[in-house]
Amino acid sequence: MVYTSYYGKVKNISEDIKRISIALHPPSGIAYYIHGDCSILFPNKETLSKYKYNTVFNKKFTEIDYEKEYRKKLNKINAENLIDYLYKKYDTKDIVFVCYEKSGDFCHRNILRAWLNENGIPCEEWNE
Q1: Concatenated DSSP letters for 88-103?
Q2: What is the side-by-side order of every strand in the sheet holding 123-125?
Q3: pLDDT digits (tens, 9 = 90+) for 16-70
Q4: Which residue pairs, CB below 8 angstroms and at least 24 apart, start in 33-40?
Q5: Are 128 and 12 in contact (CB under 8 A)?
Q6: Among 63, 107, 57, which Cα is nearest to 97's?
Q7: Is the dihedral of CA 2, 25, 32, 128 positive or negative?
């Protein structure tokens, strides 16, 4: 199974589930895996900056704008191949993609989860 979660919940996630950071700059001291092949899942620095500062040339950069840009990046990936690769690489059937924002907050993790589901990969937010 594929899950998403945030760093604050990592301690509650079973060590059998392989943790993969999808943040540009993950925190130090947390047990997670940074996988270079998953850098495609990181938000673009430019997109993140435009959203964080919420302006592009004096125009508002909305969550919709952020999602459009992030989905352009995701649409270059074959979702099934990526997940199969990670399952084999980590010899697991369960992975969790983690970033900073709490459950329910807007972030690229939620967009990723929706995109995976749309591409036939069941994915849900870790709720334990």
Answers
A1: HHTT-S-EEEEESSPT
A2: 18-21, 95-99, 2-6, 123-125
A3: 899 998 988 888 776 566 655 688 899 888 888 888 887 666 678 889 999 999 9
A4: 33/90, 35/86, 35/89, 37/85, 37/89, 38/82, 38/86, 38/97, 40/73, 40/74, 40/76, 40/77
A5: yes
A6: 107
A7: negative
Distances (CA, A) of 54 to 22, 27, 60, 73, 101: 21, 24, 6, 20, 17
∠ CA(15), CA(70), CA(40), 5° rounding? 50
For residue 115, what are the domain limits?
2-125
Q: What is the pTM of this model?
A: 0.90
At 57 the pLDDT is: 67
Residue 111 CA to residue 29 CA, distance in Å, equals 26
Torsion of CA 99, 101, 105, 106, to 10 degrees: -50
Domain count, the chain: 1
Q: Is 125 exposed, middle or buried (0-12, 13-18, 19+ CB in 10 A)?
A: middle
